[in-house]
Amino acid sequence: MIRTLFIVVFAALSLDAQVKITPGTDRISVEIDGQPYTDYFLSADGNKPYVYPLRTASGTLVTRHFPMEEVPGETQDHPHHRGMFFAHGDINGVNFWATERSVKDPKQGRMALKKVVEAKGGAKSGTIKAVFDGLDPEGKPMMTETRTLTFYPGPELRIIDFEIQIDALRQLKFGDTKEGTFGIRLATPLSEARSGRMVNAEGGQTETNVWGKQSPWVDYFGPLDGKTVGVAIMDHPSNPRYPTYWHARAYGLFAANIFGVRDFTGDKSRDGSMTIDAGKSVTFRYRVVIHPGDFQTARVASLYEQYTSRK
């Protein structure tokens, strides 16, 4: 059924597009300028949708391979950190963050593909729009998530815009936990535990000054395959509770999370939870910029201004 849907959706796709979108049984593949860029895995195994791998414009992989692949020398902690993803560890007490099937958690939720709405390549960008059901441990839908990913080509940068609209099928409470939310697991050599460095928009550097702090963007950069490269995550001003807190770790996890206020501040009197009433929705928007050089040579602050000035 999914295969048939893909054939219909992609029938009119231009073969000479600068961004090319190609169907598969469990994923949608993205090529840029004739070269593989990434795959959008559609949660066919009941885990969660994720994008893997991410590359620079020159082809260097900036995401960790594990657990999709095993590469000597890589860390193998937190197998639920798959490429680039959106998930939260406590929605009505259900865990959508750590959803590996090898973990026997009675509170574990899962995401299931409902339909692919759009998958279109083009000379200036390519877009994938898909709808997922968020299922509780009994398999009953709690919410639908409409995820729209837009990929932009360029001679030096790789830019991805990520938008997610969450529609509540019942009242939803996003609990206060650091285990979330929009994240990327970086290649092991990029981590601060090796030779990388993270910096936020206020100039705070290292996990000590970035983790648990609010900032409109964070850039994580370092040496990889003989070159300095970086990955920036940008929080859009239209997002709830802008600017976001950051669950950014020295071991290579890199995530925007508005909910974990108690965890991040250490103040037990605070509550970062958020409730969405049944029939209502909430939308989050982020931009990911993969660039050569560090945050200064890449002019990440200016790139953020360009992002937020778009209508």
Can you give a write-up of this model?
The chain is mainly β and 311 residues long. Helix content is 9%, strand content 40%. The chain contains 4 helices and 18 strands. It has an 8-stranded antiparallel sheet with strand order 6-7-8-9-18-14-13-12. The termini are far apart. Residues 1-17 have low confidence and may be disordered.
Pick out its properties.
mainly beta, four-stranded antiparallel β-sheet, 18 strands, 311 residues, 40% strand, Beta-galactosidase, Chain A, domain 5, disordered N terminus
Write the CATH architecture name.
Answer: Distorted Sandwich
Order of helices and strands: HEEEEEEEEEEEEHEEEEHEEH
Q: Class by helix and strand content?
A: mainly beta
CATH topology category name: Beta-galactosidase, Chain A, domain 5
